[in-house]
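Hi Prof. W.,

I finally got the Flavin reductase domain-containing protein prediction working! I wasn't sure whether to trim anything, so I left the full sequence exactly as given:
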Amino acid sequence: MDTKAMYKLSYGLFVCTAVRGDKKNGCITNTAIQVASDPNRISIAINKANYTHDMIKDTGLCNISVLSTEASFDILKHFGFQSGRDVDKFAPDFPADSYAIAENGIPYIKLGTNAYFSLKVEKEVDLGSHTLFICEPTEMVVLSDVSSCTYEYYQNNIKPKPQPVGTTPKGETIWKCLICGYEYVGEEMPDDFICPICKHGKDDFEKIIR
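And this is what came out:
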């Protein structure tokens, strides 16, 4: 199969946030979609490796903030390139004016977003690497009229461009994700490596020597 066909699928980008006890957390996802209109239902698929996944399973609640074309790479890096198991993503050094608390007590992101949804889980489907949560929207708010950020827009306009071939020091080895274009630098990639953006594993990376 040609895995590059995955590039042809259209995705949005979202910050999925959850709260469990005193812990606030969030991760990047590309799988929030409306799956029914009467009654209105939204599905999200969250990788089981994400700390946010466990929080949603335990509480049955989350928020989805829709990233816009004004989103910065820093927001995607903050919520997508590190785990809530290791860091507090809502620590005091995360600007307080970049998020607010919705009526369900869960943060939503105000910076670089155009809407948010508060969701209540109705059903779960085990998909192997991911859990599919079928959710009832309990709150829906438009934050701006700026266009939503798609994967294509992220690749072309937000993601930092890789260095041209030949300029990477010492001929470093790059492993490039065929799904989203994320690049891992290192001679060997761990077998259990998960892409921080699209959550695909090592099998979906190709090795590039620069």
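The radius of gyration is 17 Å. Does that look reasonable to you?

Thanks,
D.
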